[in-house]
Amino acid sequence: xxxxxxxxxxxxxxxxxxxxxxxxxxxxxxxxxxxxxxxxxxxxxxxxxxxxxxxxxxxxxxxxxxxxxxxxxxxxxxxxxxxxxxxxxxxxxxxxxxxxxxxxxxxxxxxxxxxxxxxxxxxxxxxxxxxxxxxxxxxxxxxxxxxxxxxxxxxxxxxxxxxxxxxxxxxxxxxxxxxxxxxxxxxxxxxxxxxxxxxxxxxxxxxxxxxxxxxxxxxxxxxxxxxxxxxxxxxxxxxxxxxxxxxxxxxxxxxxxxxxxxxxxxxxxxxxxxxxxxxxxxxxxxxxxxxxxxxxxxxxxxxxxxxxxxxxxxxxxxxxxxxxxxxxxxxxxxxxxxxxxxxxxxxxxxxxxxxxxxxxxxxxxxxxxxxxxxxxxxxxxxxxxxxxxxxxxxxxxxxxxxxxxxxxxxx
Length: 411
Hints:
Mean pLDDT: 87
Distance between the termini: 18 Å
Low-confidence stretches: 197-204
Order of helices and strands: HHHHHHHHHHHHHHHHHHH
Shape: globular
Strand content: under 5%
CATH superfamily: MFS general substrate transporter like domains
Number of helices: 19
Largest sheet: none
CATH class: Mainly Alpha
Helix content: over 70%
Structural class: mainly alpha
Number of domains: 1
């Protein structure tokens, strides 16, 4: 490769990297604003808690289905085409929110949005593998990408609160996302994407994606990610309910009022910090230490209740920040680049399934076992965090993926 061609390639890689950052920022604005939207939609449409919870699980179920059934599209039709397809579908569904006025229509649009997220997110995750040269670089880039997702998770709820305070409908948030989609589709269409490296292995298909379920690396990383996601979602879905009725010092009351926002801010900061930390320390050590701290935060909150939870659960966001992008990156890197779309889709399935099922199980535990007290739900969430810690302890002691990740660096 000539020097000019290499410079041109590096420039193209930077462009698609920033487009990936923008995509994650954009869809985080809507998906992580769900708590504020539910609060408003319940009053506007007279919804029950179970009905309103569909604003969360409808999207997550669709993302899970898209990941497992459509994840192969990133490998079959190419990253660029899959990204444009997903963004087009997401933009259309988001724009229609502005014209909708019934719960059933909103539910349908949320499901379509989830399918679209699954398509462009798996393509974006596969693309990161195409433009990074080593598994370590891949992991650092993933942390940066999730950092931008974290920023979107802060901006989205703030925008909903800002709009509500001025009597403006929350659906304007989706119209703004649709406008972002239009800009990103234009940018993606005009940008040169790197060629996907093909292999002589079995052609990518839905059948091949399902076959990955039998792979020990796919299942191992997917299980750990599912336990992490169930722990993380527990905080931003149910922490406000857990802290309901809390009284304490002025500082504690202030933290309680902004607990989820503090969690999101620390999670975003931690993901950018992860780029620095993972350059200097072994990822297996970082995952072990951070998962131990996360488990300790949940365990202390379960034992001591609201007094501990008001500080420890928001603070856990700083240590949660690096877990998902790191495990996601390592899981994807265990496979050839030509299959990165399929494995990213499989991991996305477990991610979204855990995000949908975890909060429902917590609600069931609270209602059936705790008489409506969410402390019972957080006992269950402590179990999720404990299983994550056990998985990371095994990973630290045995490092089962060491050889395949080393080979990925050489190839």
